[in-house]
Amino acid sequence: MRIEQLKHVIIGAAIGIAIVVPLGAFAFVKSGIYNAGASSPHTKFTTWLTHETMIHSVRRQAGRVTAPSGVSPQQVLAGFCAYDEHCVACHGAAGVARQRWVSGMEPSPPYLLDVTRQFTPQQLFWITQNGIKMTGMPAWRDSMSDDDIWDVVAFLEAMPKMDSGQYRQWRSAGFCPPRLPQSASLAVRRR
Predict the structure, then answer these.
(1) CA neighbor of 133 nearest in space, from 62, 51, 39
(2) SS3 category, 118
């Protein structure tokens, strides 16, 4: 008889948890208690949960990506130009600060000076191509070709070896073609 009672208690507890937890989560979401403002940092739990989820997702998704066999100096330079145009405002570079408005983003975009210690080239390609939800990191797949994204990855791989003045030197040397204003570049793409 005691085993039968224990079974009933366990079943009752499981049913209670199955009802109470979703109702509690629903009430929390609908209550508006959580501050969703970007001026307020995430809780430690939210930071941990989203970061761990992202890391494991990137590892899994990038498993299907095949990296090119080699990297040329031309790819690194092309990657520098693409990084300078699309990435440096949020992520900064050696000797180059991020834009001031980036400090208002939550989570704050990471500096990428040592990103190659955390991610493989395939993972960096996947992140750049697909973006990361709820971070402000856009998916570049619709505005950059795969070759352009691999060039950025080649530059990210080379960036840790650059001294703090080299990025600024490359910028001032005029290696990159001039950028079109946003409205002009959209008109060119539509043709």
Answers:
(1) 51
(2) coil
